[in-house]
Structures are given as C-alpha cells and as structure tokens.
Specification:
homodimer, 337 residues, alpha/beta, 434 Repressor (Amino-terminal Domain), Rossmann fold, six-stranded parallel sheet, elongated, DNA-binding
DNA sequence: CATCGAGAGTTACTCGAGTCAACAGAATCT
DNA sequence: AGATTCTGTTGACTCGAGTAACTCTCGATG
C-alpha cells in the first residue's frame, strides 16, 4: 500500500444542501425548490446559479433525510421463494425494471421457501419503510401481520387464487394446464400423467384442476399424479422412478420447467426417448426450456406484463384487485410437434 | 369491495420512539438504549417496561431516521451485468446471504451490460448512501467517479485482474482454463479450440491466456478461437457454424456454462455427438451444467467463499486487497470421462 | 396616492432516532 | 460525617431535506 491514487487528499465529506446554498449565495429552501421542481417557482437566474453550485460540489440529496421527511423510501421490497428457479429470477428482474421506470429501487430478499425466513424478511422490509412489497409466498395464506401493522401495501405476486382483501397478480394456472393436456391429447396420447410440484402451503394448485379438466374433456381416464418438490433433482428422481414402471404414461404435463429439465435428464439417462416414448409439456417459459434437448413445449407466463401490473397495483394504490393473466403455449419438440 | 377484513378501523399510524417512551413512562433516550443495547446501561426493571411497551405498540425503529443520524443505511448495493446468466444470479444470491449475516440488506441493480445503465445505477446507489457496492462491471476499468465522490467503498466482484487501489475478488481464470485444457489433452485430444465470451470492456481475459498456456504445455498447436457474446443463443450459433467446418476441433473449452449450453443444443441439432465427436469443458459451475445432456464438465467457482470474502472486504474496510480463488474441476460426461 | 397582488426569497419548524452533558440518588471510601 | 464514585435517567441537540408561513419588492388598479 503505497498510495491511494483514486482518493485525492481533499476529502470533502459529501456536500449537503447547506453547502450548495452557501456556494450559490441563496437560502437552502431554493436549493430544494430547484432540485424537486419544488412547490414554489424559482427565477431562471437563481436556478442557474444553484445548478452550477450543485454540479461544482457534486451534490446529491441524501435519500435517508428525504425518506424521513416524506415518509417514503422510494423503495419497494420483493420476497422470492427460490432463486434456484429461473422463473422467479426472471420475475424479479422484470419487477426491478418496471419499478425503476417509476423511480423505485427494489430490495430483493430470498426466503428459500422457509416460513421463518419469509417472516424475518417481512420484518426487515417493514422497518426499512419500503413503500410496498411484492410477495411470492410459499404459503397459501401468508402471514401479513408485520406488514399490516406497518401499513405497507402488499401485492401477492405469482398467486393465482383469489385472496379477498389483497391485491394479487398471477397467471391462469388452470387454463394453462388444460391447454397443455388438450395439446397432448391432440397428438393422440391417451395416458397423460401429471408431475406436480409440491407447495408448502397446502391448498389445491390450479394446474392440478386444469389437468383433470383437460383429461375429462378429451374423454380420457386420468394418468398417474406424481408429486415432487419444485427442483431439478426432484424431476430427475421422478424420471428414474417412471422408467421402471411397466404402465408408464405416454405423455406428461410437468408443472414447472425446472421439473421438466430434471425429467429430461432422467429420461436421457435411462434411454427413454422424448417425445417418442414420452411426450412432455411444461409450465413457465424459462430460457432453460428453450435450450434443453429436445426443446420443451411450455406454457409461457407473460412475465413483463405481470410485473408491470404488479408495480402499478402498488404505486397507484386503488382498491385491491386480482389480476389473472393467460399463459401462451410455446410449441417446441418435446410434445411431438 | 364490501369491507377490508384485514385492516381494523383503529388505524394507528406506526408507533415512534416517543409513543413507546410515553407508554412505558420513561424518556425517549432509554428506549434507544434498550433497542440498541445502547451506549448506556438500563436497569432490568425499566428495560422490562420498555420491552412490554415495544411489544404492545409493535414498535419498529424507523430505518430512515437511523440512517440519517448514523450516516449509514445498513444497505449494500450490487450491480450485476446480466441476470440471464445463472452464474451472476448465484453470485448475487450468495452475496445477499453473506450480507444478511452481517445485518446488511442488498440492493441489487441490473445493468444489462450497458455502460449508461451501470453509471445510472451507481448514481442511484450513491444517493441512497449505501455503505458499499459490489460491482461486477462489464468494463475493464470501470468509471467510479460517482462512488468515489460519495466516498463509497467498492469491491470489484468477479474481477480477476489486479486493479491497483481497488479491492477485488475473483477467480483464477487462467489456472482454470489451463486445467481444462490439461484435462482434455489427458483424454488424448490434440486439436483443442476455444469458445470465448466477449467482454465489452476490452482487455485480455485470463481464460484465453490459460487456454494457450495449457495447449503449449501439452505440446500442441492451438485450435481455433471463436468469439461470441456471453449468451446461450450465441453458443448455438457457434455450434452451427462449427458443424459445417471440415477441420472441426475434437475438443472445446467454453468460457462459460451458458455458452456451452448453447453449444450442446447446436450440436444436438446438427447430429454431432458430445463427447464422441466433440468433447467439451466449460466454466462457472452452474446448475445448468449439471442438468444438461450430457452433463457438462466444468470449472466450478467457489461462489460462497467469494461472496463471503467480498462482503468482508466491504464491511471490515481495511486496505484494498485482491483476492483470487481457485476454481475446481467437476468431472461429468461432456469431456469424455 | 393608497392598496392590493403576484413573484421571488428567506426563516424556521418538522420528520424519528442516537447520544452526550448534566443531574439525582445510592453506594462506597476516608 | 463528608467526599467521592457509580448507576440510572433525562433533556436537548443533531443529522439533511421538505415546505408552510412570512417578508420584501415591484407594478398595476381603484
């Protein structure tokens, strides 16, 4: 350590509004007015002086002071259950972008599908006075006492059930699953199974309902339902198990791309061909579905629109609404197309 | 909208320290002392009274006020260039965990590999007075004026070149690449190509140096170098192009898992078998490498350790150091093992 | 000419929490 | 007993920015 070439000796400890005011020869109030296009008008001449001073000092308003006075941190929080799942990563990214467009920063917290951790993060967000929280809970009926006590608006994101009293944004799981089964039945399959990701919270997943609906509509008898956690290795296990079954279904609907990725891997290992021996349709529309081999036919969620809608729901307030978006079928090779 | 079952009529607008003090019958100072294990001792009896009042009111200290007084937001910022790349997602997740252990929240911003966006985010983080920033820049010599002006410490994360004056944490790209080539040469390959992700910033990537070193050590002539952006579709393009070449190399080192995933997909399409026709080793150690078919032999980065080290570098301060971690070779099927 | 009003600036208070100087009372020492 | 230390508590000031309420100037209107 010889020197600090990047830190000049003149250690100016961050300029404040007062410094700007002094340098520009005006009061602190006008500085605020200039910075915020404030509630009062400022003459062009003084505005110019202030702007020059701001530039000269490299002044930036202190967000903490602003937040204290305004009672708004201009931050939103988001709790995601699983950063291992690319779907949630995409969702978080889309929300971050939509929030940034409205001038909000996003504080992302990972609950790792643990209820304790989810609650801890909610407390943290509450004390940071975020202006709203996007919650992708692992629970069906999340415990929102912390946030309610702090009067922080919440939108349940990726929550497709109607939750009275709360805003929510989700995708039409049931219709998506129905579409998937319809498509597989259209390829001539008669034994269509379901690989269902298990959610911690209990409650019936719409995909299960839609799958059953699709099977019934096609006049078939329901294939087996296999339950497994929402993770790649779980899909792999399922495939291995399925490989040993004599009465293996000829088609599967997987409730998530990552489950399908695991399945694919397992089928490759055991020499079962996709789609020839087993056809596959999954859910989410992540890049992994596109680049796997064979490419996965999947029900893509309109992530950008969902994110935008969720951000709107938070920043514009209004009465809590439940928005459900339709997924769209993306045809690739895994279904036999 | 009939009613708001979750919001009782008694809208208590978030309790402050003063409310707690009043209810407990003490001064506001003791409340602070209790909350922070403050600089002064408090008798057990009063502490109990305060604790009761805190619980009764659901009091939470206002983070904005705290930040204003302390000059520290207890937040760290992180700028990642590409949330499409699972490596950065894992890194961000690991950093978030390590930061949380130290009591810091993480503000994650996505620069989408754009310099303008990177700079905008740095300005934003500066005005939010984060206590430090992890920067995974797309640039070789990032422009840190904003952060320097605000006296915010930075650690260059995923930066393997020595940058005098800055703390940095990275992986030994060169040694990793050398290891990869050594391994491929050990399988008997003599024409070993390089698929190199292009970085916007210019400057020589250590993986290129290590690849060349490995080839030389094995007494071989260097195979072709193919450059492409760090994205899955780019890998796919490269594979298609390679498929048409008569002098195709028998082995490839790809500088990133996502490039290799694209390659794999392209080779499948064109009927080229991996590892029989082309052996493949890649870099990063993401889950996609594990679940692709065939599984990718890859140089796994010690992400947890890197994250921990980066957080330490920020919160403990000290003189800026350059920490380089060794990657480890994970053998799977794509190399021919 | 007196009065009003618009426009430009300034002063001073406020948000909620951290913490220091001051102080009261109890405990210890000489 | 008087002096000294220690313990527990409090009032008051501070951080930086937003803004209501006030002052001052100048021109227009009755």
């Amino acid at each position: 350590m010889v020197a600090m070439p990047h830190t000049p000796a003149s250690a100016k400890p961050t300029a404040t509004r007062k410094d700007v005011a002094r340098l520009a020869g005006v009061s602190t109030a006008v500085v605020s007015y200039v910075v915020n296009g404030g509630p009062k008008r400022v003459s062009p001449a003084t505005e110019a002086k202030v702007r020059t001073a701001i530039a000269a000092l490299g002044y930036r308003p202190n967000a903490a002071a602003r937040a204290l006075k305004l009672g708004s941190s201009e931050m939103l929080g988001m709790i995601v259950p699983d950063t291992t799942n690319p779907f949630f990563v995409m969702l978080a990214h889309a929300v971050e972008e939509a929030a940034a467009e409205r001038g909000y920063a996003l504080l992302i917290a990972n609950s790792d599908a643990s209820i304790a951790s989810e609650r801890r993060h909610m407390g943290n967000l509450a004390s940071r006075r975020v202006d709203g929280v996007f919650l992708s809970s692992v629970l069906f009926e999340p415990d929102l006492r912390e946030l309610e006590a702090a009067e922080i608006p919440v939108v349940l994101l990726n929550h497709s059930a109607e939750s009275p009293g709360f805003a929510s944004v989700g995708v039409d799981l049931q219709e998506g699953a129905r579409l998937a089964v319809e498509h597989l039945a259209g390829h001539g399959h008669t034994r269509i199974g379901l690989v269902m990701g298990t959610n911690t919270g209990g409650g019936l997943d719409g995909r299960e309902v839609g799958w059953l609906e699709g099977v019934r509509e096609a006049g078939l008898v329901p294939g087996p339902i296999i339950r497994a956690p929402f993770r790649r290795p779980a899909g792999l296990e399922v495939a291995r198990e399925l490989a040993g079954r004599p009465d293996r279904p000829t088609a599967l609907f997987a409730s998530s791309d990552i489950l399908a990725v695991g399945l694919l891997r397992g089928f490759h290992e055991t020499g079962i061909r996709v789609p020839e021996d087993v056809a596959l349709v999954s859910f989410d529309g992540s890049p992994e579905a596109e680049f796997s081999w064979p490419g996965l036919t999947t029900l893509a969620q309109p992530i950008q629109e969902m994110a935008r809608s969720a951000v709107d729901a938070l920043v514009t307030g209004g009465s809590p609404s439940n928005r459900i978006f339709p997924p769209t079928l993306v045809r690739r090779a895994s279904c036999g197309c």
